[in-house]
Amino acid sequence: MGSIAPSLAELDASNIKVTRSTNLRNVPKPGSPEEMSHSHCTDHMVTVRWTASKGWETPEVRPYENLSIPPTASCLHYATECFEGMKVYRGYDGKMRLFRPDCNGERLDMSSKRGSLPGFKHDELKRLIAKLLEIDGPRWLPKDRPGEHLYLRPTMIATQANLGVQIPKEALLFIIAVPWPDPSKVKPGTNAHPGLKLLTSHEDNIRAWPGGYGYAKLGANYGPSLAAHGKALSMGFNQVLWLFGSDRQVTEAGASNFFIIWENKETGKRELVTAPLENQLILAGVTRRSVLELVQTRLSQSVGDLAPLDVVERSFTIGEVEQAWKEERIVEAFVSGTAYFITPVSLIRNGDVDMNMLKAGAERAEYAALIKSWLEGIMYGKEEHKWAYVIQGEGEQ
């Protein structure tokens, strides 16, 4: 009789071990250099080790500290790494909420497998995060500061010490929480609707391609794009609007999904247009998915003075955007994502053409603000919704 292979342990948040910090970190004030650094983490972190021989080990909430990995770790040489971007919100009712965390867990599981890393039961991710926030939430996201949030970064890295090209046999899942400035909030003394300025990518610089991995949230997607991003910043722009192919298809704006609202030339109807998922050129953003579902259910009819929107997921080119801009059919453009949330686009530069998006539909551009208010209502508990995951068992330190 053949031997039976031992079963591997599944990721299980129910048996999590907690080691509390005895050296608490300073909580930065809003707008402080520590908050603006995007790197001042809370008191604790979650770590879970995985091995190919045993599976997932016992998860642990432990004091925040630097990781120790060998210089030959797979993640340092072969980009065997993936991550998620999430937020936890302090509601106006005093409760903390995650927004659609199962979607993030499912995507992290997918990205991990795409990057030759282990899969896991994706609904366990929100339970690990909840345990971390039960401990750090009272200090870092106190009940007397509703309407604020922390940024969450679940990350998977291959830690196996081996320079050979092979599927990793050891990995680490860790989760950190970071105070994060809100880029959608206007600073005092600035224009009430500043918007983002986007610079279209050069033809010889491609972010993603069919058959690649642009649809997965891998670290390998980001490093090669930073040079173009840095150049855009030096020219006074906020993000790169990534184009693909000889016809210059619009894909993503930096690390955010891109939307444009225009009037269809043939029908005159208003459309919310964004790139499709089928060709795997863009990330299936959780905020993107939520925007589309809200528009389909709440803007299929007029809302106040706003005409209904048809949701259109299709490939479209920067040439179509430019034509619509010249014909004054553009109503509004905006981006969506965890970091930028819902932020309007003020200008797009394509070659020697500057398209002023705010001027294009200044009197009509209220859709993004409405969608943002709907999402904030869910995130901060003003509206009870199935997308909100309430964190229970919050304690005091």
Description:
- The strands form 2 sheets. Strands 1, 2, 3, 4, 5, 6, 7, 8, 9 and 19 form a 10-stranded mixed sheet that branches. A 6-stranded mixed beta barrel has the order 10-11-12-13-16-17, surrounded by 4 helices.
- Strand 2 and strand 3 (55-56) form a beta hairpin.
- The chain has 2 domains: 13-181 and 383-390, D-amino Acid Aminotransferase, Chain A, domain 1 (2-Layer Sandwich), CATH 3.30.470.10; 196-365, D-amino Acid Aminotransferase, Chain A, domain 2.
- It has helices at 33-36, 74-78, 101-114, 124-140, 226-234, 286-298, 318-326, 357-360, 367-379; strands at 17-18, 44-51, 55-56, 60-63, 81-83, 86-90, 96-99, 149-158, 170-179, 196-200, 239-244, 249-253, 256-263, 270-274, 310-313, 330-337, 341-350, 353-356, 388-390.
- With 397 residues, the chain is an alpha+beta fold.
- The chain has 9 helices and 19 strands.
- Belongs to the class-IV pyridoxal-phosphate-dependent aminotransferase family.
- GO terms for molecular function: L-isoleucine-2-oxoglutarate transaminase activity; L-leucine-2-oxoglutarate transaminase activity; L-valine-2-oxoglutarate transaminase activity.
Order of helices and strands: EHEEEHEEEHHEEEHEEEEHEHEEEHHE
CATH topology of the largest domain: D-amino Acid Aminotransferase, Chain A, domain 1
Shape annotation: globular
Task: Please identify which CATH superfamily of the largest domain we are dealing with.
Answer: Aminotransferase class 4, branched-chain amino acid transferase, N-terminal domain
Fraction in beta strands: 25-35%
Distance from N terminus to C terminus (CA atoms, Å) equals 56 Å
Mean pLDDT: 92
**What structural category characterises the helix and strand content?**
alpha+beta
Question: Can you tell me the CATH class of the largest domain?
Answer: Alpha Beta
Number of helices: 9
Low-confidence spans: pLDDT under 50, at least 5 residues?
186-193
Counting DSSP E segments of at least 2 residues, the number of strands comes to: 19
